[in-house]
Amino acid sequence: MGVAARSITDVMAELLGLLPTGWAIAQSTDAIMALFLLPLAAEIARFEAQAVAQLIEVDPGQAQYLLADYERVLGPDPYGRVATTQGQRQAIASQRWTARGGQSIAYFVGLAALLGVTITISERAVTQCGRAFAGNATCQPTPNQFLWDVFLPTSELINSFCGASQTGTASCGFYTPNPIVPVIVRDAPAHTTPVFHYAG
After folding, report:
1. Where are the alpha helices (DSSP H) in the chain?
2. Structural domain of 20
3. Can you give the pTM of this predicted structure?
């Protein structure tokens, strides 16, 4: 962030500079007064270094110490997403912390970017009265109305293995769900049906 903590030497120089002048107070780090000020200078330098380290904590996407506090304030994830890594926890907390609401395609593409996912969404053509031309369908077939095609990056596929899988629990394997999918499913416009396409 461009902010650096001062060293003990820098803090000591400032403390010595603040002392009144006179024969009893020598302006040198070798002086007895400097030895008296050394513990204070060390504590000030330690405090400043810790304060600089805490600057990243204002962003849930980079928070280390305060990440659990962000998650506590935000409450349970309304989309049921379960983060398994520190990076996923940070991404989800950041996305929720900065969410402003909206149901446009650009809004969901931006949300995905906050989660570290690049997606594209295309909208199917809808029927428009008075806009049909010869050779074109006057009305779009019902299943094609109000569909969003959401194109996602490749998902990690975890295949089923003999002796490792159990009946009734992903007997054919499973894939790692994309964290943006439940968000779009829940928050897409009510008349819109999202269809998800994974690359590969």
Report:
1. 8-18, 32-53, 67-74, 86-98, 105-114, 181-187
2. 8-56
3. 0.58
